[in-house]
């Protein structure tokens, strides 16, 4: 019974998830290696929370999001949604799952069919899944468009007639149409002007409350994630290196990579200025990751053993997990 109670707190559980892409070479195009885009991540999402997944471009966070939603097939590991193993779902079972898990993409223009009117774009998922009667469909879509802050006549317009922020609102309305339980938002504001970003973020926050949503919020910008998230996971080179409550991670970052990311956030009050940690070198290729700790070639605190031994994600404080040999 106790175990069941713990399970039901989590909407999503990801265990040792891997997503590798084969690298082929030579005349016969034989497999010569793997790009380890996601290399063994484990995390849980509590019902109703926002989990921010953050890291530099190319760290594997978008691949992780798409693998968790089962847009990509995992190479290894397990994904549980509401306690059910969804790792290997296919066909109609996978199609049914899509009603509960939806995505909002970075580039709203690329993800909206330019030849369809907005009314059709938003009603398409409802029609595909046979939801709502025909007579009520238009009313329902109108309500959704109004809820995301679009004007009434948006129904009859095409995506190119809207600004970037409005197009993202269309994408959000479409994602909400089936009343999903989980939304994976992959860099939903990074293609938008800074002035519009906060409006879209505030809308997402309001909708989360109203629709009782759980959000996996993927971003490269820690300051954006901070305002959205209850908990944060930091990714580096396909690995989760730190997971904690948002407040803890900003107040007391443990991993040297997180410390460097946080030191780079501009401070509005110059008196709070802490010394910026500049990392040397570039992120190594996920095709040929370093041995030992994946961060060791760039880590200002690296020790001799860091190049041999791979640290595990361990709890160092309550609900604060870190993958670093300094804490083992
Ligand atoms: Fe740095 Fe070593 Fe910790 Fe890796 S394990 S983050 S290299 S101190």
From TrEMBL:
Positions in coiled-coil regions: none
Biological process according to GO: peptide transport; transmembrane transport
Key word Kinase present: no
Domain ABC transporter: 12-262
Keyword Zinc: no
NCBIfam families reported for this sequence: oligo_HPY (TIGR01727), PRK11308.1 (NF008453)
Record's protein name: Peptide/nickel transport system ATP-binding protein
